Please model this.
Amino acid sequence: MKNLKSKIVLAGAAVIFSSFFLPSSAFSKGLKIGVVNVNRIYVSYKKAQESYIKFQGKRKKMQKEYNSKLADLKQMIDNYNKNKSSMSKAQRKEALTKIVKERNKVQTFLTDTDKKLVKENQQTTKKRLEEIETVIQTYAKDNGFDIIIDKKSLPFFSKGLNITDQIISILNK
Model:
């Protein structure tokens, strides 16, 4: 009995939801629904692939520069350790101060550069997703779709509803 009441409440909620958010004409003619796999579209989108390659190049350049700075710091430390016994107290203190300053510079470089790269990557990803969204919206309007849903929101859908390949084709023209 309780299970039946739950089903009736859910069915009533679906009708109320539909009446608010879907035009009444959608019920009379039937909805045209499409499904897309946004993740697959993104990884198949040539501009997104190019952006990723560019990002990886910047990341490698940053890593190379960081490794160079780290090698210089290691050389400073090695020189200090090699020569500290022949240094005066003031010279050791000065050398250690330089090492600490250099270590801080290296750490700041890593932190600042990483933040900059992450922010740039996020902005580029957002731009590519907006491009995908625009193409999906245009495709939906041009082809009379009432609803297009991302595949990750659906536990099941008919393969005939999937328009992912069409969207990828349009984006990569």
